[in-house]
Amino acid sequence: MRFDEAYSGKVFIGSCPNYGESEVVLYGMPMDWTVSYRPGSRFGPGRIREVSIGLEEYSPYLDRELKEIKYFDAGDIPLPFGNAQRSLDMIEAFVDKLLNDGKFPLGMGGEHLVSWPVMKSVYKKYPDLAVIHMDAHTDLRTEYEGEPLSHSTPIRKVAELIGPENVYSFGIRSGMKEEFQWAKENGMHISKFEVLEPLKEILPKLMNRPVYVTIDIDVLDPAHAPGTGTVDAGGITSKELLASIHEIARSEVQVIGADLVEVAPVYDASEQTANTASKLIREMLLGWVK
Question: Where does the chain bind Mn(2+) (predicted)?
Fold first, then answer.
């Protein structure tokens, strides 16, 4: 991908045209090659950009405007359809470039497996990395029906890379019994069902540490986010997720990158999910880029 000129397609509202001047690079990872239920999340990044035109650039939550930071929308990484390993390698190389250039990487998925190469890249720069993970699902499987490259495996992969004690999952309400047992036996933090209150308890433990945040849109209840591949009843509200983003923003945690994944527009007839995701991206930009 080229960074010497602006992305020629639709960009997220307020994006600046100059990569060199940017603090943040927003990019899409349009991959859904390994999903086990409903595909379509590869179209998520594009739709999030398109609906962002309806956003206000000012956040009343944070009293900041998008013009206060410079972010460059690089568009979608041109991933090879159906080739999971090559796609993951391309994502890792892309984020390596961003980090080497001193940029804050903010990714949009795509299925959740796309977060794995990003976290691999970030870990190379920040060996004391911690990960905050918000999701309906544990994503702690080692494989799915014999396939280790699966959207059900990224958190297990990163836990084995950086140490389970450095991974903190919130909002979890679905997974195999063995996944919960593995987390408990290996010192990984899992907060079932809720996000905000347990997050408040954990954040002081992560003060002054580099933290990567990965958010699967299905942490929200399907009433708030129907447009996703694997809906799961009993989730949190969009208000609680916004409050959780703001809680991280107010903390002493050093967020060094983030992603929002699993928006699938084909199941989002009212565009409710895409609009929510777009607002979440705005709050992540304004809250986590100091």
Answer: 112, 135, 137, 139, 216, 218
Written as one string, the DSSP assignment of 170-205 is EEE-B--HHHHHHHHHTT-EEEES--HHHHHHHGGG
The type of residue at 228 is T
Q: What percent of the chain has pLDDT over 90?
A: 96
Domain regions of the chain by residue span:
24-288
Q: Are 29 and 109 in contact (CB under 8 A)?
A: yes
Measured CA to CA, the distance from residue 132 to residue 142 in angstroms comes to 20
| Residue numbering of the annotated binding site | 112, 135, 137, 139, 216, 218
Return all residues near 79 (Cβ < 8 A) that are at least 6 apart: 29, 30, 31, 86, 87, 90, 91
Query: Tens digit of pLDDT for each residue in 39-78?
Result: 999 999 999 999 999 999 999 999 999 999 999 999 999 9
Residue 181 CA, distance from chain mean position: 25
Start-to-end C-alpha separation, the chain: 27
Q: Mean pLDDT, to the nearest integer, of 265-277? A: 97
Beta bridge partners of 259: 107, 214
Mean pLDDT of 241-246: 98
Please check the confidence at residue 2 and state whether its pLDDT lies above 80: no
pTM: 0.96
* Annotated binding-site residue numbers for Mn(2+): 112, 135, 137, 139, 216, 218
